[in-house]
Amino acid sequence: MAKDTRLQKMLADCGVASRRKAEAMIASGRVAVNGVRAAIGDKVDVKKDRVTVDGELVRPVEEKLYIMVYKPRGYLTAMSDDRGRKCVSELVEELGTRVYPVGRLDKDSEGLLLMTNDGEFANLIAHPSTHVPKVYRVTVRPGVTEAQLTRLAVGVEIDGRMTAPASVRVLEQQPGRVVLEFVLHEGRNRQIRNMCEAVGLEVARLKRTAIGAVKLGMLPQGRFRELTPDEVRRLRAAAKKKGAKAEGKGEERDAANRSDGRKRPGGGRPARNAGRRR
Fold first, then answer.
1. How far apart are CA 38 and CA 49, in angstroms?
2. Is 108 known to be catalytic?
3. Which of 11, 66, 202, 277 is the most buried (most CB within 10 A)?
4. At a CB cut-off of 8 Å and minimum separation 6, what does 18 contact?
């Protein structure tokens, strides 16, 4: 068999890490193929090549696992930490099989986190073009106005880029605190905290309660359970549907840009902002 599988995909399929993390491991020199330090872009024969990470042989995954964890506050969404901080990997040690996080949930947040040893599934769910809706219960201080709710829903600028439209509604309102529900369709680092800060709100508590059709429910803090086959199927279907829509929109923009270029008198180059949404 030819060397037809990208190394980072092979590592993800074997449950070592997500593709993005696998690329970082390769770049840092932790991965070797047949005793030779690997490089980004290398391909392997999954049946013949001997791949190691930190000197340990990588073996194929025998059983694919799909786990939901209730991550408590204070845990890093990571497999290990060189500063000795608590990591979500500690919450699933009793599995006896290495699973890694799908996406992120920051240290000060809690709630639903997916973990798996299926690299293809992890890449599908976490890829920027296929983000399924994620639901959060967010307690903010001191109160919230209609203008602030509108800004959060329409989008605010973070690091020079607008957030995607979101659904934001009030669940509870008491003196000095309000509980909001956010439904996001993208996953930027500390996004809700940064959005709230941008409109003058302080986040007191942030809890993710659902990812697509998968709900946290009554799962206790620090515990986990396996996803049902139907939950896995519905997550895959939602991610593929969104990915197809994103691809279709990209093709429409490309076609519009090509058309704009053809119509421009004198065959000149289209304007730099042609086809760009404002």
1. 12
2. no
3. 11
4. 12, 100, 101, 102, 119, 122, 123, 126
Collapsing DSSP to helix, strand or coil, 161 comes out as: strand
Dump pLDDT digits (tens) for 72-109. 999 999 998 999 999 999 999 999 888 989 988 999 99
Torsion over CA: 102, 155, 165, 201 (sign): positive
Each residue's pLDDT tens digit, 200-210: 999 999 999 99
pTM of the model: 0.74
φ/ψ region of 27 (left if φ > 0, alpha if ψ in -120 to 50, else beta) reads: alpha
- Residue of 54, 106, 118, 159 marked active site: 106
pLDDT in tens, 160-190: 999 999 999 999 999 999 999 999 998 888 9
Distance from C-alpha of 162 to C-alpha of 154, rounded to nearest angstrom: 9
Would you tell me how many other CB atoms lie within 10 Å of the CB of residue 173? 11
CB 168 within 8 A of CB 201: no
Q: The tokens of 183 are what? A: 């439904």
